[in-house]
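Note to self: user wants both folds in one dump. Writing first protein now.
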Amino acid sequence: MNFSNTLIHWYLQNKRDLPWRNTVNPYQIWLSEIMLQQTRVAQGLPYFLKFIDRFPTVFDLANADEQEVLKLWQGLGYYSRARNLHKTSQIVALNFEGKFPDNYNDLLELKGIGEYTAAAIASFAYNENVPVVDGNVFRVLSRYFNIETDIASSGAKKEFTALAKELLPDGKTNLFNQAIMEFGALQCVPKNPNCENCVLNSSCLALKFKKVSDLPIKLKKTKVQKRFFNYLIFKDAIGNTILQKRTQKGIWHNLYEFSLIETLDETSDLEVMELIERQNFIKNQIENIKLLNPIKINHKLSHQHLSVSFWEVQVEGKIENGIDYKSALNFPFPIVIYNFISKNWK
């Protein structure tokens, strides 16, 4: 049985009907690949459609304000992707007259485009003979060929890329790359794959040696940092508040938030209230402090777990440069803030 042809045949019968598969437009393919990094298709699809509707060409995206791009991206996470997306669109529009490079090596030179994304664009848009290697590909190849290499090790990417390249069928790179990724997403899933109804079950070595649940091997574990956020929603006599922009590097760069008190450890409500009393965000006299969510919101990011509390802080007089609720919602927020205020602050 031919591994590559079997996968392609399976793909043509089982592939999902997704808009970026019905085009060889590198702009749309690039946009979809950036969005689907660390993101499920079901979550990313509505964002893709919104972006294509608002920015139908790379010129439209390049001419947009970064704040608008971040607002449209709100809720998709990993916001550095959106910032790099915007910057890359400007480079393509200005330096390449709106035309994406038509080969893998030149695509790699663009900001925010790594080896996987460059290979995806080059093969899907231009059918260049380069393999794609993502988590799905690692999983399919490691199981089918019984590869025990730790996929988090330094040499794993090179080993799997070389194997994937050997498997590329002449003239069908675009189909094969999409087929193996789709196979990993729908059939050879991480947990409890349906091996009985798999087109590769007669030759899969992991199934033969009863190692499906053991592969791929990934020994390196991500260290998770715990952080404790207390957001202060200041309110003056007319209901205005203040926002601040996160300009420091790290999570949520260039997004907006309320005044923040971050503590190193979990802190009692009384201790937080004492910190709020000593705050220097505004000069107005504090009248009342109220915790809006007695049960803290646990917000998980890839390398950080956030414990988030929201405090309403009523103050005397009028807040200088204050902003009302309706206007505030136009700013790009981290989704944990947006979801809370859209339900609890009006």
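First done. Writing the second protein, which came from a different request thread.
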Amino acid sequence: MSSLRNFRLDDLMMEIRRRQICESKPALNIILIGPPGSGKGTQAPIIKDDLCLCHLATGDMLRDAVTAGTELGKQAKAIMDRGDLVSDEIVIGLIDDAMKQPECERGILLDGFPRTSVQAQKLDEMLNSKQKSIDRVLEFKVNDDILIERIEGRRIHPASGRSYHTKFNPPKVDGIDDITGESLIQRKDDNAEVLIKRMGAYHGLTAPILDYYRQKNILKTIDAMAEISQVGQQIHESIYNKII
């Protein structure tokens, strides 16, 4: 959660009220799993605000750590400069550090990690050391042939991570973020060629990790081809069922 000093008076009162409401809701650690274009970027801010969780997108965390020049950021930069993949230990270290911040005290919403069952096991080990665990894993399921249209129409607000789509979820003003009025961007890798490669890797790695969480009885599958509001309702039911 951001500092209350960043809000105007009217917005401050609304934010305080929102946080009071959050206190009546379950504190959870949630993972979002799904291919590019499955809708995670649209739903993540809604889940984050509803439960007052800390949204941790590991790709963004790595870039921020490198820019800030933190110890883990320096290690990651050296590895990436060599063209190698950043180790699981570094990524989990970033998540560990983030969880120590006040804004993450109610729980985390993980997007982009873990990607393999080995990473899932290492994440569990770190959480267990804190007497914590993953409470829900939401699989965003979409047919491959739907994804290209979704990906090529995706637009992102870089500062917040808010996601739009030129057809399915357009901003109020074309190319402009609804909240800040700042420009939206299309990521360089949001195209069919890159998507096909990423989908091959996703399918190759996803089955084992879904099985891992299915065995723990915390995996919920979301029909992400439904309307946005219907996807949101499925997520709400998946989060709250058997909790409240």
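Dump finished. Worth passing along: The first helix runs from residue 9 to 22.
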